[in-house]
Design brief:
It contains 25 helices and no strands. By secondary structure, the protein is mainly alpha-helical. Among the domains are: 154 residues, Alpha Horseshoe (Serine Threonine Protein Phosphatase 5, Tetratricopeptide repeat), CATH 1.25.40; 60 residues. Helix 7 packs antiparallel against helix 8, helix 14 packs antiparallel against helix 15 and helix 18 runs antiparallel to helix 19. The longest helix is centred in the C-terminal third of the chain and has 21 residues. 45% of the residues are buried. The N terminus is likely disordered.
């Protein structure tokens, strides 16, 4: 993995975050507001912001204090290249309101870097009129981050989070501000808290990207070693030549013995050669040099896991997610270990986090469903399996799992009516399996057990 450029421009990303419609969750009207907002969202996503403007203007007229609609309207104007028009209109509008100042601030900030001063003044004016609206403090924090005024942004985003502690996008901004001000522990804590707030896929992706930046092992690599390190990575990951990679990496290590990433890569190369002893030694050395790198603890846990040293593996995986709460593979391992220990509640927690980080991987939903089933929470287990079948209706494995779920429920039920209902549901799913796989032994045997065949 080549080292990444950590100094790429961030302004555009932050403006996009400030104008994002994804988290505009305030609804207008009893029924049509949400649907109309979704229609406007589609117009913007499809590159037709001009069509969104009249729709959102009407919503804004109906609910002039709705900051979600205000943000959406500002985005539509900016994307349509009509920021100046919006600024002129809002500047003439009376009486002024927090929402008007908010839209002005967003429009100024998106229009030009030279508009930084007016943008800040408008956002501050909005806050003065509505100091308890978290969205306004968040917008000011994003604007300050966008112009690299990190220490000034921190109090604003802290206030936003204090007012609305369960907003994932605000926690993401808090993590970003803490990272920029050098507070690793608080940045990681904010990302950990974000996972418990039902973040969207986009927010998870942004959190992963930020965590990779926070924990980037290549930042300490001097320019003089980068070419050699790239060669070692090429040998290890692309040419699949661990012995040659070891030779190249050992040469780097002789010249740069304090580089943790070199020892980590040496460990991975030795693992490929089944030399776990050397791998453990190199990983321990990497941890000595970089004790806050959660991924290295994960790699060490994997070695212990393969060697069936489960207590040590568990300690490593736990430390890995403490330092890097976005390591989905570590949560999966912890969930598996909890299942082995019959700690079904613990397993559910780990698999739940893994599912949030890997929403499209059916196997994770399957593991979460199993943990819920073992607790007797059949309804929640059913939901997880149906979530997979909704996206993959022909997935035979998960149809079989549905049958096994209801067979288990039937076996545990003490009420005759409940047993019969569970048996009927189980039979339905096993029959579905046999339509695709007529010789499936598990389905056939299970149907015999419940007397369906």
């Amino acid at each position: 993995m080549p080292a990444r450029d950590l100094h790429a421009p961030r302004r555009a990303q932050l403006i996009a975050a400030a104008l994002s419609l994804a988290c505009a969750c305030n609804h207008v009207g009893a029924g049509e507001g949400p649907a109309v907002q979704q229609q406007a969202r589609r117009f913007v996503e499809e590159g037709q912001p001009q069509k969104a403007i009249p729709v959102l203007s009407e919503l804004h007229r109906q609910a002039p204090d709705d900051l979600g609609v205000a943000r959406a309207l500002a985005e539509a104007y900016v994307r349509a290249g009509r920021a100046d028009e919006l600024i002129d209109e809002l500047s003439r509008r009376r009486p002024v309101s927090a929402a008007n100042h908010y839209m002005l601030g967003l429009a100024y900030f998106a229009r030009s870097p030279d508009a930084e001063g007016p943008a800040m003044l408008e956002l501050q004016a909005a806050i003065a009129l509505a100091p308890e609206r978290a969205e306004l403090h968040h917008a000011l924090a994003l604007a300050l981050l966008g112009v690299d005024r990190y220490s000034e942004a921190l109090p604003s985003i802290e206030r936003a989070v204090a007012l609305s502690p369960a907003q994932p996008r605000m926690l993401l901004t808090l993590a970003r501000a803490c990272h920029r001000t050098g507070d690793f522990a608080r940045a990681v804590a904010a990302l950990r808290k974000l996972l418990g707030t039902r973040p969207s896929r986009a927010e998870i992706a942004a959190a992963k990207e930020l965590m990779e930046e926070i924990a980037d092992p290549f930042t300490s690599v001097p320019a003089s070693a980068r070419t050699a390190l790239s060669n070692g990575l090429h040998l290890l990951h692309e040419l699949d030549s661990p012995q040659q990679a070891i030779a190249a990496l050992e040469e780097i290590a002789r010249e740069n013995p304090q580089l943790p990433i070199v020892h980590t890569l040496l460990a991975l190369a030795h693992e490929q050669l089944d030399d776990d002893g050397f791998a453990v030694d190199e990983l321990k050395r990497a941890i000595e040099l970089a004790p806050l790198d959660g991924r290295t603890f994960y790699y060490l846990g994997e070695v212990y896991f393969r060697k069936r040293r489960m207590s040590q593996a568990k300690e490593c995986f736990q430390r890995a997610v403490e330092l890097n709460p976005l390591l989905e593979d570590a949560y999966l391992r912890l969930g598996d270990l909890a299942l082995e220990d019959q700690d079904f509640v613990g397993a559910q927690g780990h698999f739940h986090l893994a599912a949030a980080l890997l929403p499209d991987l059916p196997a994770v939903r399957g593991k979460l469903s199993l943990a819920l089933q073992r607790q007797g929470n059949f309804e929640a287990a059913d939901r997880e399996l149906r979530e997979v079948l909704k996206r993959e209706p022909e997935n035979v494995e998960f149809k079989l799992r549905m049958g096994e779920l209801y067979l288990d429920k039937r076996n545990r039920s003490r009420v005759v009516r409940d047993r019969e209902a569970a048996a009927k549901e189980a039979g339905h799913w096993f029959e579905q399996v046999l339509k695709t796989d007529p010789e499936n032994a598990i389905a056939l045997r299970s149907l015999q057990i419940i007397g369906a065949r």
